[in-house]
Amino acid sequence: MSSLVVVGFPKAEEAEAVRRELVDIQREQLIALEDAVVVEHDAEGQVHLRQALNLTAAGALGGGFWGTLVGLLFLNPLLGAAVGAGVGAASGSLSDIGINDGFMRELGETLPQGTAALCLLVREATPDRVIERLRSHAPHARLLRTNLSHTDEDQLREMLERARKQAEGLRLG
């Protein structure tokens, strides 16, 4: 089962930086993410979701490929590509895999204006190694929500607190 972890940051840029770093960490197989979305509550009060994967574009690309292939079979590749891309884009925009958009929008409304949260759907991870790698962001991060057990959530909070103290010690030292 996947775990939902939502971490708050004072600025959207920092949440984006952590998400980019998590992609690098994922390449090292220290974490397996199913979804990673930055939720920003901007200064004007609007909530923005920055998805890691644009499903509409991915659907259009895949649909375009299959449409071209079908079009070649019926001797009209351009029509096949156009129809395939349209169908792929429509199906991509309608699919909601990962974290529910409604949940993230509601969460965004609860954030103070000008701040952001990073919503992660984690399939598996080595938490101590991941937090060690993200230590420089720890002073600003705060755990907002999880679906972890109380024990696992307490351990995660303790690891974040230790990383925060270490990062502050490095800055002061």
Map the helices and strands.
Elements: E1 3-9, H1 12-27, E2 31-41, E3 47-51, H2 55-73, H3 77-94, H4 101-110, E4 115-125, H5 127-133, E5 142-146, H6 150-172
Helix pairs in contact: 2-3, 5-6
Describe this structure in words.
- By secondary structure, the protein is an alpha+beta fold.
- The chain has a five-stranded antiparallel sheet, with helices on both faces.
- The chain is globular and about 35 Å long.
- Helices cover 54% and strands 23% of the residues.
- The protein has six helices and five strands.
- A hairpin with a 5-residue loop joins β2 (31-41) and β3.
Q: What is the N-to-C succession of helices and strands?
A: EHEEHHHEHEH
- Radius of gyration (CA) equals 20 Å
Helix count? 6
User: Could you give the count of β-strands?
Assistant: 5
- What order do the strands of the largest sheet run in, or round the barrel if closed? 3-2-4-1-5
Mean pLDDT: 79
As a percent range, the share of strand residues is 15-25%
Uncertain regions spanning at least 5 consecutive residues: 54-61, 87-96
The rounded distance between the terminal residues' Cα atoms is 41 Å
What is the global morphology? globular
**Alpha-beta content class:** alpha+beta
For the biggest sheet, the summary is:
5 strands, antiparallel
Helix content: 40-55%
